[in-house]
Design a protein that fits this description.
mainly alpha, 67% helix, metal-binding, iron, Cyt_P450, heme binding
Length: 130
């Protein structure tokens, strides 16, 4: 279940609240993500024991989590792009603009002086919501 803090962060960063269905799965994957970030991989310290990460399922859990988060954030970005192309949202409209809209605007206008890739946008969104 997404708590009030997470709902607020999702609303500010992603433009909407994620509660039922996709929201529950998203919260579970975020919890898994944080758990994996705190997990020690013995292969990082003793390289010849790296195979233990495959045996104990650490690598497969990380791959599943990364794949889900990548697909979820891709959907969020695509939703925002389609809304922008429909003319529903602009960054100038403070009521509708959110963090994803700002990042897409920066990408479109090249406002920072160098191109920002979609992978970087996903990383920034993930940092914001977690």
């Amino acid at each position: 279940m997404i708590y009030k803090k997470e709902e607020s962060v999702c609303r500010v960063a992603l433009g909407r609240r994620y509660r039922e269905g996709k929201g529950n799965k998203f919260q579970e994957v975020l919890s898994e993500f944080w758990e994996l970030l705190g997990t020690v991989c013995i292969g990082d310290y003793i390289p010849w024991l790296d195979w233990l990460g495959k045996v104990n399922g650490l690598y497969s859990r990380a791959e599943k989590c990364a794949k889900y988060l990548d697909e979820f954030l891709e959907e969020v970005i695509e939703e925002h792009i389609s809304r922008r192309s429909d003319g529903d949202v602009s960054v100038d409209n403070e009521e509708q603009g959110d963090f994803v809209d700002v990042l897409l605007s920066v990408q479109k206008t090249n406002a920072i002086g160098f191109p920002i890739e979609r992978t970087s946008i996903k990383a920034l969104i993930l940092k914001q919501i977690s």
